[in-house]
């Protein structure tokens, strides 16, 4: 990924790629007879839950980001090397847009289609686990990152049902807000690291 990305067009490429996942969701939804947007509706309560649900996972992210343990340090180095120079080029509003697109598209695909599809065949628990493993595999830059992404997906999958009726907006908001905060941390770290190098 780091070697094939055109740094000049990173934002456009990333937005197109993430946005294309909605197309994948529509195709899979058609095959599985599932409406990807069936559980998506706006409510202030759901939006609030989504924001609040970001807090614990972002705290965990910050804690892991600071730990000087080899597997975690490897992930941090990969994030800084791959994303740092790319994200640094853009304004925070661009990072917010990218995070929102990623949150919406990935949640529509994994929580809007894949999770209910798996649930319809194997039940809620197995559906949650299988869809989370697939989410982890899609983010598997290292084995540990795969495990962390899988756990993150379990958390997002559970957020679907914290209200009386299932609402996809909650994991969308949590995912998007978390990505945005992570982008800011990576950008700050990369800038600070290279300022010290100078």
Q: What does this entry look like structurally?
A:
This protein is mainly alpha-helical and 198 residues long. It has one domain. Helix content is 79%, strand content 0%. The chain has helices spanning 10-32, 44-66, 70-87, 92-122, 124-138, 143-159, 169-197. Helix 2 runs parallel beside helix 7 (169-197). The longest helix is centred in the middle third of the chain and has 31 residues, at 92-122. The chain is globular. The mean pLDDT is 93.
List key phrases describing it.
0% strand, 79% helix, 198 residues, globular
What is this structure, in a nutshell?
By secondary structure, this protein is mainly α. Helix content is 79%, strand content 0%.
SSE inventory with pairings:
Blueprint: H1 10-32, H2 44-66, H3 70-87, H4 92-122, H5 124-138, H6 143-159, H7 169-197
Mean pLDDT: 93
Strand content: under 5%
Number of strands: 0
Number of domains: 1
Radius of gyration, in Å, reads 17 Å
Oligomer: single chain
Number of helices: 7
Structural class assignment? mainly alpha
Measured distance between first and last alpha carbons:
27 Å
What sort of overall outline do the alpha carbons produce when their principal axes are compared? Answer: globular
Q: Biggest sheet, in brief?
A: none
Unreliable runs, pLDDT <50, ≥5 residues? none
**Helix and strand run:** HHHHHHH
- Please give the share of residues in helix: over 70%
């Amino acid at each position: 990924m780091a070697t094939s990305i055109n740094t000049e067009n990173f934002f456009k490429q990333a937005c197109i790629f993430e946005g294309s996942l909605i197309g994948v969701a529509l195709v899979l939804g058609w095959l599985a007879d599932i409406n990807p947007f069936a559980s998506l509706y706006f409510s202030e309560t759901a939006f609030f839950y989504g924001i609040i649900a970001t807090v614990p996972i972002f705290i965990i992210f910050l804690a892991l980001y600071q730990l000087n343990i080899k597997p975690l340090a490897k992930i941090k180095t990969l994030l800084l090397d791959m994303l740092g120079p790319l994200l640094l080029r853009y304004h925070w509003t661009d990072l917010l847009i990218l995070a929102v697109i990623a949150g919406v598209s990935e949640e529509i695909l994994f929580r809007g289609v894949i999770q209910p599809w798996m649930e319809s065949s194997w039940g809620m628990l197995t559906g949650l686990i299988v869809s989370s493993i697939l989410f982890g595999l899609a983010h598997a830059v290292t084995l540990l990152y795969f495990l962390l992404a899988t756990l993150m997906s379990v958390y997002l999958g559970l957020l679907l049902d914290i209200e009386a009726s299932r609402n996809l907006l909650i994991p969308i908001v949590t995912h998007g807000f978390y990505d945005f905060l992570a982008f800011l941390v990576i950008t700050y770290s990369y800038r600070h690291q290279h300022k010290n190098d100078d």
